[in-house]
Design a protein that fits this description.
The complex is a heterodimer of chains A (about 250) and B (about 290). Chain A is α/β, with parallel strands linked by helices and about 250 residues long. In chain A, strands 6-7-8-3-9-10 form a 6-stranded mixed sheet, sandwiched between helices. In chain A, about 35% of the residues lie in helices and about 25% in strands. Chain B has one domain: ABC transporter involved in vitamin B12 uptake, BtuC. Chain B has a two-stranded antiparallel ribbon with strand order 1-2. Classes of the chains: A alpha/beta (about 250), B mainly alpha (about 290). Chains A and B meet through α3 of A and α6 and α7 of B.
Amino acid sequence: MTNSHLLELHNVDSGYGRTQVLRDVSLHVDAGELVALIGSNGAGKSTLLKTIVGLLRASSGELNLDGNSITHMTPEKLVRRGVALVPEGRLLFGPMTVRENLELGAYSAGARRGTAVKDGLRRVFELFPVLSERASQHAETLSGGEQQMLAVARALMSSPTLLLLDEPSLGLAPRVIAEIFSALEVLRREGMTILLVEQDARLALKHADRGYVMRTGEIVLEGAASDLLTDESVRTIYLGLLKGEGSA
Amino acid sequence: MAELLQFVIAGLKSGSIYALVALGFTIVYAATGAINFAQGEFYMLGGMLGVWFVSLGLPVPVAALCAVVSAAAAGALFELAAVRPIAGGDPLRIIIVTIGGSVVLRQLALHLFGPDELTLASFTPGPSIRLFGAAIERQTLWIWALTLVAVVGLVILYRRTAFGKAMRATSLRRDAARLVGIDARAMVTASFALAAGLGALAGLAVTPLTQTAFDVGAGIGVKGFSAAILGGLGNPIAAVGGGLVLGLLESLAAGYLDPIYKDAISLIVLLAVLFLRPQGLLGGSGKEKV
């Protein structure tokens, strides 16, 4: 199948062991886009990201990157193909320093690691100057916001073409969230393709080109971010504009 | 005073051996969350292979290097051929596979090297060195030196090299390690190889003093495991401490109480730690496993 999409999912089923979470999920992300994936807690958003990077295996369906199948590709191979995930809960190497976390982020560069680390550090320190001040601190001693910045920065160290983010705003103060999203805007202007999973639907849609809405493992709605922001059902369920309406 | 010093020297000698074996336990534990009960067999292989390479006419230093490298390769092969396909990543299954593996390795050694006790010449011949009325065998100095080199080498590996940091990262956060491109399964193989190499180094260094045979693995396995538990299983440096403490306790108990207690000490220590202080005497928070 030839197409111009950078990432494409066809009828993907996935889950944990015998527990199926995703049902028949199809979506695509084009080069240069910022696509938001919204939905309430437990809708399967994180499962979808884990399936894309290969931490979970799709039980059926197809995943393509740049027209090539990545359906059963492992995460360690996929990062070499330019896909990086900022995982849920950050998963930093806590007892290691900020610098060591970042160096490990460039692990996939292999023989070119020296240059990759140097270039990568310059780039992420520019994006998040606070990390350069904290470079020799252990990751676990950072504040929540700094840890999230480090998680994003670590993913960027592999010079991805497609960046996947899982709930980067979770548990953070509004000022920190603004800082992280302005960094995402910078990346976007540089041409990075981003697939963003967020529970904060308004925040995600405000920054996105397009959006998908997930409910109980299925994509139930898709469209331009601006349309989704004004869509009646999205407003009711995910933006909480009407009182007394719970999420499904 | 000379007597005490002699006991301390003997304790630090066997303690260093226990430390190397214990390091192997902590390394595999960090990578898999499982105890490698075949660890003692690699100690046995170190001595046996050393004897075999010397019998081929190789000079002792070359034979020693060949023995340690072959044992490390055997450790990697053991992981690839038995642990990975049978156990997957499940710690309980890994433990069971290593118990089975230890029997296989022991029988294999029996068939390849025979049932006799074998020995090696001291690495450097010569009389013992006198120190305040106590005697230190030259081979003991070798044991201390090799233990020191191994520990320093491990610290450099873990703290300074990309490969060592990748091993630590995998043990801390397996998924995150995979996401940055680390082959987590290869790190498990590497940890088995490293543990086997350290065990083999111990078995090799001690053979000139104690002789070796196909069945020495089980006994040293208990000692090394006790030392690792004493150190808390979580921390290699604490495991080295655990080994030295265990060696000293054994030596002092054998010297001042009765030699009959020597082998009971490690079991007493093992049970006491597990009952009273499961995180280990020397173990800290146990947050990082390597």
